[in-house]
Design a protein that fits this description.
heterodimer, A: 261 residues, alpha/beta, Rossmann fold, 2 domains, 6-stranded mixed beta sheet, 10 helices, 10 strands, B: 297 residues, mainly alpha, two-stranded antiparallel ribbon, 11 helices, 2 strands, globular, nucleotide-binding (chain A)
């Protein structure tokens, strides 16, 4: 399969919690280099879908394919090592830790030094390794313009900055695919514009494929390559932003128009 | 007033307190990483000390070799306990997990008594000299060793949590397991590691105390002394654990001094830390350095 297969595919994924059907028979694929957005009303199953991809939930039926390989039963931390990074809808920073330490946790799977090698700090090359990692982390910090707060405890930052630190931490994984769960929720217009620019740049310059959940339709239609619409756990449309906006059921869901049966 | 006893007791308090601090640190380590209150902490000291004693009295090996083998054994011991006893309990109510640790405590105490008997047994002598002079006080070299070992372990903890990859992963896991996992941290591995480190570090304290006082089931009493220390310092603070341990050690010995000089009630050594525990719980229930849980409704 390799390069030809889509970077990520969901194959007839269903997720049930007891009697609640969070997702029903959702299939889609994300191509390498895309910005793929999932939209839909609250409770449509968007975050559930992302959780199935990141490994937090396991689909009741169906499978998740990573570059053609079935990863449905692979543990969350292994998926991170494969190259899937994510941010969370509700901020999930390590509040008492510094911004830098938060980001360094993201490098966990890339740091090869074990306990013993770490203890032999000066002999074992752990120091050299750390310097190389720190350089890459500094690049991410520069990119997201958070130099000024790098030593500050993450919990003390403003909301917009914390969102950026969380993005930086996910980027530190060096993921091939980055899952962003509402990266712009609760931001003002200026912060949203900044965040949209960061997402486009990390897609184009850093070569990360983006899968994003977002409510701001303006941003979604602006930067997405393709869009999928979920409603009540079912896929109701998928395609380019224009195609999706023209879809009658999407128009009814978002614009309140009557649909002729 | 007789101060001849005061300074030796103060020094003794600091030395014993440093050991309490070390045990309290390893207790807090488990609590922070996996939210388990480990009632079998004292048995780590006991098992470690007995294993080391058995190695040294059975085989003609030098102390340091026996000590190293003991540490390797305790690493495995901690990992096996976590994997066999505690991993199946992940997701069960906290009280079940606590009961499991209480059960382990009883089991290992009984096992050690069955294997090694109920009487205290002395370690073979390690140091050639009986006493050395420090600041005009007569001190046993083992006490000095214990102080050095404690300080070394504390520095090691500090380094581990500040600079090492695994320490960072452990802090992240303590904060939010789901998020740590999504960043590539293996939570089961972090849990196993925290139990292994905790068992090793406690057993170091166990061996040191065993060398000083002889090995007996009294060692597991350190596991109970840990509670005033960690409550004093705050359940989830490593630095708090160290300071709590030192305070408890000094408090015990000063209580003994006050008791012998003025009160003559007897047994204040044993009880004073628990008076402090009750007071702290009344005044500062999160401890001196613990995290306050503020719930917004």
């Amino acid at each position: 399969m390799g390069e030809d297969a889509p970077i990520l595919a969901a194959d007839h994924v269903s997720l049930r919690f007891g009697g609640v059907r969070a997702l029903t028979d959702v299939s889609f694929s994300v191509n390498r280099g895309e910005i793929f957005s999932i939209i839909g009303p609250n409770g449509a199953g968007k975050t559930s879908m992302v959780n199935c991809i990141s490994g937090r939930y396991r689909p009741t039926e169906g499978s998740i394919l990573w570059q053609g390989r079935d990863i449905t039963r692979v543990a969350t931390n292994r998926r991170a090592a494969l190259g899937i990074g994510r941010t969370f809808q509700n901020l999930a920073l390590f509040g008492h830790m510094s911004v830098l330490d938060n980001i360094m946790v993201g490098r966990h799977h890339l740091l090869s030094s074990g306990v013993v090698q770490g203890m032999l700090w000066w002999l074992g090359g752990a120091q050299r390794e750390e310097i190389a990692h720190r350089r890459e982390v500094e690049e991410i910090i520069d990119f997201l313009e958070i130099q000024a707060v790098r030593k500050a405890p993450a919990g003390t930052l403003s909301y917009g900055l914390r969102k950026r630190v969380e993005l930086a931490r996910a980027m530190a994984l060096k993921p091939q695919l980055i899952l962003l769960d509402e990266p712009m929720a609760g931001m003002n217009l200026e912060e949203k514009e900044d965040m949209a620019r960061f997402i486009v740049d990390l897609n184009e310059e850093w070569g990360m494929t983006v899968l994003m959940i977002e409510h701001d339709m303006g941003v979604v239609m602006d930067i997405s390559t393709r869009v999928m619409v979920l409603d009540f756990g079912r896929q109701i449309a998928i395609g380019s932003p224009e195609e999706v906006m023209a879809h009658p059921r999407v128009r009814s869901a978002y614009l309140g128009e009557e649909v002729e049966a | 007033m007789d101060f001849t006893l005061f300074f030796p007791l103060l020094l003794n308090g600091l030395i014993v307190g440093a050991l309490y601090g070390v045990v309290a640190m390893s207790f807090v380590l488990i609590y922070k990483a996996s939210q388990v209150v480990n009632f079998a902490q004292g048995e780590f000291l006991l098992v470690g000390a007995w294993v080391c004693w058995w190695l040294l009295t059975t085989y003609p090996i030098p102390f340091w070799a026996g000590f190293l083998v003991t540490m390797c054994f305790m690493t495995l011991f901690g990992i096996i306990l976590q994997v066999v006893v505690l991993r199946p309990l992940i997701g069960e109510p906290v009280i079940s997990v606590i009961m499991a640790t209480v059960g382990m405590s009883i089991f290992f105490q009984a096992l050690m008594k069955w294997m090694f008997g109920v009487f205290a047994k002395p370690f073979p002598p390690i140091f050639a000299t009986e006493r050395v002079q420090v600041l005009g006080l007569q001190v046993q070299p083992v006490y000095l060793l214990s102080l050095v070992v404690s300080l070394f372990i504390m520095l090691g903890f500090w380094w581990f949590f500040t600079y090492s990859k695994h320490g960072l992963a452990m802090r992240a896991t303590a904060f939010d397991q789901q998020v740590a996992q999504s960043l590539g941290v293996s939570v089961p591995r972090v849990f196993a590691m925290s139990w292994a480190i905790s068992a090793v570090v406690s057993s170091v304290a166990g061996v040191v105390v065993g060398v000083v006082n002889g090995v007996s089931s009294a060692l597991s009493f350190y596991g109970i002394k840990v509670f005033p220390a960690v409550i004093l310092g705050g359940l989830d603070s490593i630095i708090g654990a160290v300071l709590g341990g030192l305070i408890v050690g000094v408090l015990e010995n000063l209580a003994q001094w006050v008791d012998s000089e003025f009160l003559n009630w007897g047994n204040m050594t044993q009880i004073a830390p628990f008076y402090a525990l009750v007071l702290i719980l009344l005044i500062k229930p999160y401890g001196l350095f613990g995290t306050k849980n503020i719930e917004r409704v």
